[in-house]
């Protein structure tokens, strides 16, 4: 007794005013704006019914339309990308599930986006889905507060996200990796609409991690292990690094 298949979209939030890298979405990498590379990767997805770029800036909006993307203008006043996402979805009443794809990951694996969409479509009890990379417990990243870790229940649902080492290995446990959280999310529309009405929660404020607001309010978040470690672009130096990867891929397809 299945109902109609859920309508699933991808949204790439792209804002101009990054403090570390203003105008980042339009930074040219191998001759194309950064956000266009992400959009082209996501066009390879098979589980998305549609794909949009949500922006607060006319320049990004115009660029998106020029390379054929559907673009949605949103307010520049949003405190977080999730609020921008929720505003964009208001103009799309047909949508059931939204995959929020970082607009600064030009090497994102389309298969991961499809996996998140499929996980949400397959289990109506999920409010959200996200991804994580397995790390060796001895990897220095485990101790780095800029690297967010996640631990899961036996069924793969998130128990906690933290900047601290997680879990703390009082005892060695064979085969138990540490998971580095990867910032890509799928949301059920009904949950996203509730989420943005809640005030920042105590643990969210302590760790400065928005996903803790979802957990503190009882959300069910599936965490998919992935080996997609595609780097994000936060600085011009990282843009140059990604350009060298893309250039080598283009010359050795």
Describe what you observe in this structure.
The strands form two sheets. Strands 1, 4, 5, 6, 7, 8, 9, 10 and 11 form a nine-stranded mixed β-sheet that branches. Strands 2-3 form a two-stranded antiparallel sheet. It folds into two domains: 1-122, Alpha-Beta Complex (Spore Coat Polysaccharide Biosynthesis Protein SpsA, Chain A), CATH 3.90.550; 130-181 and 204-229, no CATH class. The longest helix is centred in the last third of the chain and has 16 residues, at 236-251. It is α/β, with parallel strands linked by helices. The protein has helices spanning 34-42, 58-66, 81-90, 110-122, 189-195, 202-207, 211-216, 236-251, and strands spanning 8-14, 28-29, 32-33, 50-55, 70-73, 97-100, 128-135, 149-152, 158-162, 178-188, 221-225. It is globular. The chain starts with 7 loop residues before the first strand and ends with a helix. A hairpin with a 2-residue loop joins β2 and β3. The chain contains eight helices and eleven strands. Helices cover 30% and strands 23% of the residues.
């Amino acid at each position: 007794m299945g109902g109609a298949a859920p309508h699933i979209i991808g949204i790439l939030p792209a804002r101009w005013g990054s403090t570390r890298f203003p105008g980042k979405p339009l930074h040219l990498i191998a001759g194309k704006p950064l956000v266009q590379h992400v959009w082209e990767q996501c066009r390879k997805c098979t589980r998305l019914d549609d794909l949009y770029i949500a922006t607060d800036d006319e320049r990004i909006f115009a660029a998106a339309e020029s390379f054929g993307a559907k673009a949605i203008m949103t307010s520049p006043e949003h405190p977080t990308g999730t609020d921008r996402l929720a505003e964009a979805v208001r103009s799309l009443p047909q949508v059931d599930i939204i995959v929020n794809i970082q607009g600064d990951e030009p090497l994102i694996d389309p298969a991961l986006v499809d996996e998140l969409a499929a996980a949400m479509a397959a289990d109506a009890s999920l409010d959200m889905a996200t991804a994580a990379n397995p790390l060796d417990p001895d990897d220095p990243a485990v101790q780095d507060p800029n690297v967010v870790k996640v631990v899961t229940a036996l069924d793969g649902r998130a128990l906690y996200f933290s900047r601290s080492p997680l879990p703390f290995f009082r005892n060695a446990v064979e085969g138990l990796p540490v998971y580095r959280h990867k910032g890509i999310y799928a949301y059920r529309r009904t949950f996203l609409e509730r989420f943005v009405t809640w005030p920042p929660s105590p643990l969210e404020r302590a760790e400065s991690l928005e996903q803790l607001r979802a957990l503190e309010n009882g959300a069910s978040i599936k965490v998919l292990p992935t080996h997609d470690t595609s780097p994000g672009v936060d600085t011009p130096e990282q843009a140059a690094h990604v350009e060298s990867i893309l250039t080598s891929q283009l010359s050795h397809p």
